[in-house]
Amino acid sequence: MLNPHLLNPRSDTFDQDWRAIRALTLASLGLSVLGPSQAVFMRLFPDAPPRIPRSFHRLLCRAMGMKVDVIGAPVEGQPTLFAANHISWVDIPVLGTQILGSFVAKAEVGQWGMVGRLSDLQRTIYVERERRTRSREQSNEIAERMAAGHSIILFPEGTSTSGRTVKPFKSSLFAIAENDAVDVTVQPVTVAYTHINGLPVLRSSRHKIAWVGDMDLAPHAWELLGLGKIRALIQFHEPVQRSDFANRKELARYCEQVIAEGLLRANRGEL
């Protein structure tokens, strides 16, 4: 029997567009309810962790057809610095379904319209990576947030990647871990996208999920939302203490190695 999509190739495009429209509609409805709730919550409890955004992330992943599988578990009950590899903008909702914490992002993200507004509701900490003179001030802001009991989610590569390998971690982003006032708990986290509609993600299809280089956000998001079922895999590795390492460079190298090994195993289909 002939595949009906071969007889009418436009049906594939229609299905993809319909999935994208459905995902955007559900996400918009969720945001219309949870967004104002989080804004009020932030005013009433300015120091509280962002609990409501986690519900939105779960709704968004469900709307996108994103199935999040988890190995291990995030540290709970104490402020933790989560260090993860970075593949796509969709890492945010994927990690947000499991971690109750705030992200660290480049300052430009706060100016990206609706994305910026969502980041604000997540209590995102914005950093100006090109202005090294502000690095200590930004590190102090993260330290204050953790001292208040908040967990922080960091992408030490400093950029997104194709998801095949891990780029060298920037040790400067671990400056918070050098705070002598507290022995920071750090948990390495590997993020991988292994399947699209039940088929393994190959090199030729990684661009459909990975958001790198000069890709425009809107068309990339539209294509991703229309892909169908995507399997995301989060590996929570064993947490470590800052005091386990001589300095932040050693800590950065350790996290990079552990996360890279996890990504390699995921891409090989071993997990």
Number of strands: 9
- What string gives the helices and strands in order? HHHEEHEHEHEEEHEEH
Strand content: 15-25%
Largest sheet: 9 strands, mixed
Q: What characteristic shape results from the CA principal axes? A: globular
Approximate helicity band? 40-55%
Radius of gyration, Cα only, in angstroms? 19 Å
The number of distinct helices, counting runs of at least 4 residues, comes to 8
Spans of at least 5 consecutive residues with low confidence: 1-7
Estimate the mean pLDDT confidence.
Answer: 86
Distance between the termini: 35 Å
Helix/sheet category: alpha/beta
Keywords:
single chain; 271 residues; alpha/beta; 9-stranded mixed beta sheet; 8 helices; 17% strand; globular; disordered N terminus
Report on the architecture of this protein:
- With 271 residues, this protein is of the alpha/beta class.
- Helix content is 41%, strand content 17%.
- It is built from eight helices and nine strands.
- Strands 1, 2, 3, 4, 5, 6, 7, 8 and 9 form a nine-stranded mixed beta sheet that branches.
- Strand 3, helix 5 (113-121) and strand 4 form a beta-alpha-beta unit.
